[in-house]
Amino acid sequence: MKKLLVFIFALAFISCETQEISIPVQKPKMVKRIIRHDNTSTIYKYNTDSTLSQMQYLSASSAPLYTKYFFYENGIIIKSEAYDFLNRLDFEELYIHSDGQLKEIQAKNHDTEMIKAPNDINIRFNYTNKVITSIEYEGAGAQFKEFLKYDVAGNVVAINREYNPENAISNTETKYTYDDKNHPFKSFNPILIASKFLDFELKSNVNNPIMKVTTFLSSLDSILVATSYEYDANLYPIEIVESVVGRTSQFTYEYYE
Predict the structure, then answer these.
(1) Which of 23, 25, 149, 235 could be disulfide-bonded to 158 (CB atoms 3.0-4.6 Å)?
(2) 3-state class of 109 per DSSP?
(3) What pTM did the predictor assign?
């Protein structure tokens, strides 16, 4: 998904007393709902240990379109299942861990109406010093590798995607610029990766991207995504406006109290 949440406990010592005072650390907020400009929305539900249990995509009339469930063992995600509006199994992912790290996602598409349905998807993660530094993606009609770079805060600042030689014309470099506020999914540990589509992207959940520039290395053509935010008192986004190629999308974020 990437970043392990680290809780830092500050201790204050009063010179005139030997009493030790512990300063509580605020827990990350949890997203309740995202509302899009067309009034479609996504609802998030959580387990008692704050792990994500369900994501549900709703139409403008609040009819369920797509529901995804997440399953855990000892707090570690092991599987997800997605169902369409007729409650048919559409897509599933198995999360393979080793030495406490997510090493692989094995995904299967059950949607027989999609041309690429027979292609299973496999994503492998490679680490350096417990940080994902490269990804190998195979399935849905494509095969590529990605190489990631981070800033000191843990945000992904660059991703180089390299396809097989016969598809090298599609190679890209994506660079990110961030604000210094809280990401809405800061509570996700690690961030969950949706593997179904080729526009899959491993995203940071530390700060919020304000600029994303993807350059096609064969032509040097670029796509720029600019994002602006309105924050609440705890510096979490509540209104997001995203602009790309002259089109603007707006999102409203609601959180559990």
Answers:
(1) 149
(2) strand
(3) 0.84
